[in-house]
Specification:
about 350 residues; alpha+beta; NADH Oxidase; 2 domains; five-stranded mixed β-sheet; four-stranded antiparallel β-sheet; 12 helices; about 45% helix; Nitroreductase-like
Length: about 350
């Protein structure tokens, strides 16, 4: 890893605050750290992601990839270059990476300022064509990320098909009693609760109006949700989401060669670079990962959906891949981007969990 440099604790904490602004499913922030004065060890916190969407911690590894990318981007601001080794000790299964730092002249990566501004935006986006310069910038930003391919859909019919595919998982989640109960258990309903927890799925990030929020709160009650299923609420929500997702300047997907932990970490790095690049361009972004994970689990025999749900998610996964032009590898995630009003809120972050040894 080259000549390693000791870093003081205060600088490390500041650096980690930037790193920990990485996205994670339901804002679970599945990481902890140890620091021995020279090496930073990054550990996964297992079992915190949605068990019905995630498999073998792959969702967490996407989050770790984004965290590592933030760390790499932020280090030069403090006068360091960062290098890391993935899964250096097979006996420590939770050890994701060991990082070392080399001193350099202070400088600022072009994506650094976007780290604090990056946010999920679930508002409607303006429907327009993607410009050549925007498309070029997206492909360029992931060109050097190992083992990932970026696919972008610009054709409006293709975008509508991808949007419909991505939204189908919402219907399945709400119709499946187990998945719905887990979803509602992770909802953070009030500002006070969000301030205290600084994790979880904050309801205000959904950008619901008052009526939608009221109905969603009612749906969190199992007996009421049973009735709402009978009158077709899950199908209605999925159709509304399909319309929402199809409002954009483009939709994209990140493809990886295999399901190794390393590949999902690389996918997380690519995701963060795309997101930060779009943030610098003043464009909104929403990741759409649920469908791809449920579909891949189902295709590989890891899922336990009802037959009708399994058949539907496989069909939608196939449609999304065909619409993007994906013919090889694993479609790890989808996303949409475009012009939109700023989101009303953003998720909070816990302070870095660091053990000094």
């Amino acid at each position: 890893m080259g000549t390693e440099i000791v870093m003081d604790k205060s600088t490390l904490i500041e650096l980690l605050r930037y790193a920990c602004r990485a996205p994670s499913g339901d804002n679970v922030q599945p990481w902890r750290f140890t620091w021995n004065g020279v090496h930073l060890s990054i550990y996964n916190v297992p079992g915190v992601h949605n068990p019905y969407l995630d498999f073998e911690e792959r969702g967490s590894y996407i989050a770790h990839g984004a965290l590592l990318e933030n760390l790499r981007i932020s280090a030069p601001h403090y006068g360091y270059n960062m290098e890391f080794e993935l899964f250096p000790d097979t006996k420590q299964t939770e050890l994701v990476a060991v990082c070392s730092f080399r001193q350099c002249a202070k400088n600022e990566d072009e994506l650094f300022s976007a780290i604090k501004e990056r946010v999920t935006n679930r508002r409607p986006y303006k429907i327009r064509e993607l410009t050549e310069s925007e498309e070029s910038a997206l492909y360029k930003t992931v060109a050097d990320v190992s083992g990932t391919e970026l696919y972008i859909a610009k054709n409006r019919k293709s975008i509508q098909k991808i949007a419909a595919s991505a939204s189908s998982v919402e219907k399945i989640i709400l119709e499946d009693k187990r998945m719905a109960e887990h979803l509602f258990s992770k909802i953070v309903w009030t500002d006070k609760e969000d301030c205290e927890k600084k994790s979880g799925f904050f309801i205000k990030t959904m950008e619901f109006n008052l009526v939608q929020r009221f109905v969603f709160r009612l749906a969190s009650k199992p007996k009421i949700m049973y009735f709402l299923r009978k009158i077709g609420l899950p199908s209605f929500i999925a159709k509304q989401d399909a319309v929402l997702y199809s409002s954009n300047a483009g939709m994209g997907g990140i493809v990886i060669p295999d399901e190794s932990a390393e590949s999902f970490i690389f996918a997380g790095q690519a995701l963060e670079r795309i997101w930060l690049t779009l943030t610098n361009m003043q464009l909104a972004f929403q990741p759409l990962i649920g469908m791809t994970f449920v579909a891949y689990k189902t295709e590989t025999g890891r899922g336990d959906l009802k037959d009708a749900h399994a058949k539907k998610i496989k069909e939608d996964f196939k449609q999304a891949k065909e619409s993007l032009g994906v013919t090889r590898g694993i479609l790890a995630m989808l996303f949409r981007f475009g012009d939109a009003e700023k989101p009303s809120v953003r998720t909070r972050r816990r302070d870095p969990d660091v053990t000094f040894v």
